[in-house]
Amino acid sequence: MSPITHFIGSWLVASVVTDNPRDRKIVTLAGVLPDADGLGLVADVAVALIHGKEPTFHYYQQYHHLLLHGWLGAIAVIALLTFFARQRTRVALLCLITFHLHLLCDLLGSRGPSPADLWPICYGEPLFRHPIWFWKGQWRLDGWQNQTVCVVVFVLSLWLAAKRGCSFVEVLNHRLDGVFVEVLQKWRDRFCARGPKVEPAD
Ligand SMILES: [Zn+2]
Fold first, then answer.
1. What is this structure's pTM?
2. How far is residue 185's CA from residue 165's CA, in Å, rounded to a whole number?
3. I need a labelling partner for 28 at 20 to 30 A (CA). Which of 9, 11, 43, 157 fits?
């Protein structure tokens, strides 16, 4: 799935199961960081720009879904993040959940344009080749199923943000989150205040 869906979906889970901003941020990041192994894309584009050639996507294809989408990546990401947590044991378990939720979502919807372009989860990588998991019915990355999940997760997150007073923006910037939530709550109040018009009795 797209990094945006991973990000908002992980924040949704984190916001339900944690009770403080720091742990919420950490549990959210555990659901996003597996895709850091796709940053080779930046190197690919940079190399192409420097040499004035078309990008080959060498680093992206070499490392994406292979470095941080397995058990070793899980240990590394969770160990690093949990170090900064308030409730370490609890947060480690929650990170384990959001990390593997990321893998499950990728298994469901990371396919390329053609039906044969399946993207497996190589859970043993980068140390071992096996196990390798794939699903023949995998959705296209830009397919309607992925877009539907993204919209549902996004709407749910806005609803929860207006209710709880914090949103996924808090992971990026706390002050900006305050402004964002204030706007959301104003919209919600305006929308709810409208309601059905009742005609006054004679
Ligand atoms: Zn991924």
1. 0.89
2. 8
3. 43
